[in-house]
């Protein structure tokens, strides 16, 4: 063997060129020329920290409401957040899809189902019901609504005003894995009932109580997590902190995770969903996780640092956090934010890693 | 070998007697003489179906309140249901302990902890707080309160009236296994606070919401299951049935199981706890399970058949169900009943078996 | 309330007597008079440390071979070790049954199946095949053979000499739980084949290799653990120790646990099975576990201390270890011992506890 | 809203163009124009069925052995199979990396460790030891050797002849997830010992036997699966089939899966590894799975159909199977093949799906 580090001769270089050409012709590629890019010492995402302002998103969604119909084929009037570091895609991060969906007065979105896991989170408005496997689920400000994989779902706006919300899905992950199946359902709504509480909530929405006659599916049987409960849970954590008791993740920072009541695990198999509340004057720990996430400010305002970017943020603003990018959130008057991430994927595959920096 | 079935001779019988005597001297015992008793074709419990009436229990408990102090050593003024089929014990079934505990005005029961898993269920009254690892938990009608194994606990009556409730424990199981450890705590109450909601409820009592800052222990982190939630969950099942939707276990029969919100599994590792509601005119399926249980009527009235016994029952009445005894409950005006059982033990050991008979 | 500790008056004592009589009449029993016995501070087993010598057991078994037939009803010529602390039972410990089973030349034991979990361990001899669900399994010195719950099994001696082995079952546990079901099978053997290796071994007996076409049952699919593998695994641990590498549980003490290759967990759901080897001059750590066990010396000799008892032991001798009794084994020339215990029950129910004392 | 399906006017088209431009400026992308591509009705992989012949691969690897050194930075002389459907990558499938690695006489590859899970499979030759966390593991024909995530590893050829083998890793998956961490180790080998069996095999390589003194890590503790065991297990399945007993996955088709002996689950958390044997004249079922895989013929010859491609294959030939592509293997004289796939990822995320077609 001739070591190429010993100044290869012209002949050796020619042999090497020929070897690489033969590799290419044989559909082969050497590791040694690309090892560092393929296997970096720490995650080096193409995705970048990115911000989308609600004040931009919402008007664009409303304009599409004027120009673009909802119907079979396109299926949904949803506009995705496209991470600038992932050009040519419509992905917020390498694993997560985030979009604003807009449904005009009296509009309907037809039934379909798919492998991809989905949720809706409502930052403002109400009046739309999403029927999940025929069970009508009201959508209201602050609610998290689930559509686990292969659950039929359709939406309908029962009011004379439009409504918009955030969709989160694992489309990029499922696309990358070539794991997706998709089916179209009937054109006609399965139901037009508009109950205040869905049947799944009535069965499963009682703390610690399992309905023995309703067998638990693999996915969460609870499809709606209502703001009144989320708000109460976050408030309790900060009150307990004020009383000197544990419960917050760090000073002034309360977090609840949305879970499957039949297992206590993440509500969705591929997407973690959480609500964060920072109290007056609070600052989160600076945290890195292996894996990516998307946040949406739900109420209040503050400042967010993701890697080298710092933004002032307010209600409805969304931002993407690439893998291993440090995140810090600060607020003067208090801030509530919804977060979703691919943590369950990392945990299921033994890839989870977290680093918390004091940063003070 | 001489087959004893071929009319053994006198000599053979003498040899056999000598053999059995030598077995006994050697601390040995033949299987063949006792196989049927040790390994019956179906469970043949010593425990029998048995009923205890609240109208008997409560006055006896009250009399003990006059005569017997609560204090170190005896620890609790609790009077156990002793199954007549298990003489010499104070066991309701071979695995379960059930007792009425009585705490007089302003009385305290001192702190201790033990391997045995415990719960309290309140059929009437209020005014006592049980402090579980220093967290004061109010006890009120219809509530289920947990004390998982090795959790410090103490009780105190903050009122001028007595209060009684049901204790359930796995004392017989733990005694049989020689698994028990017990520790005495301080004589002085860890706290005299009397909050409406305990800290564990404030953290964990929100449906499907997990407090991220409060690591879940092996046992249930939720110690109190409040009647308002249980009642609402049972009512919803019967309403869904009336609307034509699934949810009940059989016509007119709603059931919720108390579960650990961090895992979705039974709230206690060795004891299943459930609340049953039979609607007006309902009749349960006739069901046998391998394993034993104890029921207490919480409200309403009806008739219960356990094996060959049938009793009319009303509020507070308790009955024990031996392993594999068929149980049927009937009611005209509706009936709520609390049930606890050793099902989790049978499931954990691969011994669970159920048989449902139509019985119509 | 009158405190009885303040020297009760004669009237009070009479009232108390009347109360206790009324308790008894109502099938009730006070906790406070028996709390210490029911809930001791550490396990206080009725079972005692006990030794059974092979030199006693085997001749008694042989005598029963002359006098007692094997047949339907008694089912097996098995003679149990009856713990002197558990009079009136045939239990080695509160959860475990241990017996010597003896099968004469050309004898057969007919098919049955039962809830109870069983194994055979062979301390000497060979020539019997046990058919487990129709799969003939040779029994040879040092082998562990399984019969998980509800597996049909029958034995037949294909030789002109008798054979004896140890049976282990969870009969006491299942009896206490009232969990047992038992079925008789056909009188005629399912097969008289005598292959060297059973079909389950041929499918599942390859290290780390799972047969994809053979779905794994809940119980272990591997029914035979052969001495050649056990011996090699123990030898390797001591060799690694001599080379300076980890692997032994303590100096000179090698242990392997028999596991279900489909799960890596205990081979049987209610009984732990292990083989221990102490090297020349070795002494085990002194260990207490919550839960009981039975040991049989397989080869070599040594001295065993269980609680307050110390015995010199040799091949075939068995001893019972009550819950929480400290065990120490010493040997000059080396000693192999088989151990079985109820550890999996304790682990499944959250009751496991271990204490290791240096004891030096 | 104006329905665009009703022949949009020129003005509407202009408004739509403007809307789409504004989307792009805001880093947004509409779902409705790309829904079908993102969420196809069945998986529509970019990866294609592809074949690499050993007769091409090996000489190219040997030429690189002349021209390219092994050393720090490039780390390994490994040449990857680059799927023609995934241009610009060196990926065999969207989740799997497959490469031929070549180590010249007396060469060493320096220590490193990484998040990526890796294995080696040896189709010919011997003489290299891979040290995994300091434990030297011989590599010989037919062996599967593991390097779970974050395990230090290094290779050294102890002979005067070169050796080549196949590396499999989850590099594409980990790259896509931005999950990778990588560390360089010392330049000097941790050990130059060349034992026939590694320490992990001596502890864990006994069927169904768990070393109690060696705590099981999260990853498989067994790093080497030897051909003698794999061969025997496959042979046994075909023999059992010939005797009329179950065990094969379909007529003439035996399969073993390499598993973690401490859990019975896949040996690696993100990669399934299996060995297949088709007997004389056998034909596999035609099977589709959601997820991708790579096969290497180990011995024998036959014909393989993947989707629309059919190839004659022999020893050493590799082929990639995209998600949901039907695979059929036929052989006249018998064929052994190693398969690895991303099945564990699909199972962990709830995305697994299989379809078997008779195809006769």
From TrEMBL, chains A, B, C, D:
A matching Pfam family: Cupin_2
Molecular-function GO term, any one: oxidoreductase activity, acting on single donors with incorporation of molecular oxygen, incorporation of two atoms of oxygen
Domain Cupin type-2 stretches: 101-167
Taxonomic superkingdom: Bacteria
SUPFAM superfamilies according to UniProt: RmlC-like cupins (SSF51182)
Keyword Oxidoreductase: yes
Keywords: Dioxygenase, Oxidoreductase
This protein's name: Cupin domain-containing protein
Keyword tRNA processing: no
Transmembrane segments: none
């Amino acid at each position: 063997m001739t070591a190429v580090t010993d100044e290869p001769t012209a002949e050796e270089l020619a042999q090497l060129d020929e070897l690489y050409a033969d590799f290419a012709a044989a559909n082969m590629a050497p590791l040694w020329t690309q090892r560092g890019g393929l296997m970096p010492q720490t995650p080096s995402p193409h995705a970048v920290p990115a911000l989308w302002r609600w004040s931009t998103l919402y008007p664009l969604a409303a304009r599409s409401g004027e120009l673009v119909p909802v119907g079979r084929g396109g299926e949904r009037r949803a506009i995705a957040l496209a991470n600038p570091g992932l050009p040519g895609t419509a992905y917020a991060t390498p694993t997560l899809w985030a979009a604003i969906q807009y449904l005009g007065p009296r509009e309907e979105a037809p039934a379909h189902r798919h492998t991809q896991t989905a949720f809706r989170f409502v930052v403002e408005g109400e009046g739309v019901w999403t029927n999940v496997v025929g069970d009508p689920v009201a959508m209201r400000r602050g609610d998290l609504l689930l559509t686990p994989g292969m659950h039929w779902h359709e939406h309908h706006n029962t009011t004379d005003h439009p409504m918009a919300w955030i969709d989160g899905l694992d489309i990029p992950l499922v696309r990358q894995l070539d794991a997706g199946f998709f089916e179209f359902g009937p054109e006609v709504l399965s139901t037009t009932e508009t109950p205040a509480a869905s049947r799944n909530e009535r069965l499963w929405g009682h703390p610690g109580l399992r309905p023995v006659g309703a067998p638990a599916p693999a996915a969460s049987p609870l499809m709606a997590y209502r703001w009144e409960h989320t708000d109460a849970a976050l408030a309790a954590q900060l009150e307990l902190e004020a009383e000197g008791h544990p419960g917050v993740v760090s000073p002034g920072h309360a977090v609840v995770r949305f879970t499957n009541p039949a297992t206590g695990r993440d509500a969705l198999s591929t997407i973690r969903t959480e609500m964060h509340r920072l109290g007056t004057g609070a600052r989160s720990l600076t945290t890195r996780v292996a894996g990516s996430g998307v946040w949406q400010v739900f109420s209040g305002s503050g400042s967010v640092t993701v890697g080298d970017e710092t933004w002032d943020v307010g209600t409805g603003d969304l931002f993407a956090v690439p893998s291993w990018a440090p995140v810090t959130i600060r607020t003067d008057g208090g801030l509530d934010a919804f977060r979703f991430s691919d943590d369950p994927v990392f945990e299921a595959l033994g890839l989870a890693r977290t680093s918390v920096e004091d940063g003070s």
